[in-house]
Amino acid sequence: MSDADFKKGMAEVPQWLLCSDDTSAPVKSHTHFLRKTLGAFSGVFQNEFLSEKYAAKVGFLQLVDPRVKLLTLLFFAVFSASISKIPVIIGIGFVAVLYAKLSGLSVTDFLRRVWLYLPMLMLIVSIPAATNLFVKGVPLFYIVKAANFAPHGIYFTTNGIEVALRLALRCGVSLSFGYLIFITTRFSQFEKSLYVLHLPEVFVSVLGMAYRYIFVLTDTAREMVEARFSRTVGKLGSSDGRRFFSHSFAVLFIRSQRLSDEVYDAMCCRCYTGRAVSLADLKFGVQDFIFIASNVIIILILILV
After folding, report:
1. Structural contact between residues 219 and 258, judged by C-beta atoms closer than 8 angstroms
2. pLDDT value at 163 more than 70
3. What span, in angstroms and rounded, lies between the C-alpha atoms of 39 and 221?
4. Residues sharing a CB contact under 8 Å with residue 104, sequence separation 6 or more, in sequence order
5. Helix (H) and strand (E) counts for the chain?
6. Do 81 and 179 reside in the same domain of the chain?
7. pTM for the full predicted model
8. 169 and 210 belong to one structural domain
9. Which domain holds residue 140?
């Protein structure tokens, strides 16, 4: 097609087709809280998928018997809570990081999930208790010089800083070993190991049902929010958002009651005896004895230090 033919064709096109239409612009939807809620619900399932992915890996802690792993890592958490020396607590924390690395976990993700939130919050909350108002000791640096309302001044003490740091480290170490237990063990095996360790069957059954029921309720709530989000166009006021969430909580509560009755009836029809069944057999192996021996050596070294 020549330029002359092209210009002739453009001249025959109506002008209203060549003009841009402002009404064709996409409509902005101000439903930020719905998107954030969907993101929070999806985060719950992402954490579950992450746990299953790491538990299925062939790593150091994944090869250990769940009973041995549970008792050993819990002992490390209790041992860190009974130690007052900060370097020893830090050494136990390095053991947790080493186990995470050997088990195929991302060290960066491990530190972010465990140490970035609750231990830091514990440290911030306990900082006021590190002053001479609560813990006496050698002045580290002054906040307020001596005055009429504070004859000795207000200052941070070395003993107070050690107490605050010790609380944060103990919290982080306990969370580290608890995180390693759950991230490297399938919940069915974890639940069976609790039975083998002779914990009350009612406690283990309630724990298992609560764990599974969280995901059922989360999935139901996610579907409700997703249905509302897909049908919302334009700006949604705060009053409408509050009304939606209040109604959603009421509907979710009614659904959960009905679902719990249906699940219980189905379990009774299938001869549920109150004991979880797992297809995986728990057996001691050579790797379990090596794991126990190596941890005994590590604990002896820490005690000697």
Report:
1. no
2. yes
3. 12
4. 54, 57, 58, 59, 62
5. 12, 2
6. yes
7. 0.68
8. no
9. 59-185
Please tell me whether residue 281 adopts helix, strand or coil conformation. Answer: coil
Number of domains in the chain: 2
DSSP 32-87: HHHHHHHHHHHHHHHHHHHHHHHHTS--TTTTS-HHHHHHHHHHHHHHHHH---HH
Say yes or no to pLDDT of 94 above 80.
yes
Say how far apart CA 28 and CA 19 lie, in whole Å. Answer: 22
Report pLDDT digits (tens) over 213-242: 777 777 777 777 777 777 776 666 677 767
- Please name the amino acid found at residue 164: A
- Mean pLDDT score, 91-106: 89
Distances (CA, A) of 23 to 14, 27, 31, 277: 19, 9, 21, 60
- The answer on 106 and 146 residing in a single domain is yes
Are residue 75 and residue 94 in the same domain, yes or no?
yes
Asked if residues 198 and 142 have their Cβ atoms less than 8 Å apart, the reply is: no
Query: Does one domain contain both 179 and 268?
Result: no
pLDDT score of 274? 64
Same structural domain for residues 72 and 140? yes
Residue 38 confidence (pLDDT):
57
Reported for 134-140, long-range contacts at CB under 8 A and 24+ positions apart, including other chains, are 134/160, 135/159, 135/160, 135/163
Sign of CA dihedral 179, 185, 187, 191: negative
Same domain, 134 and 159: yes
Name the residue with tokens 């069944």: 277
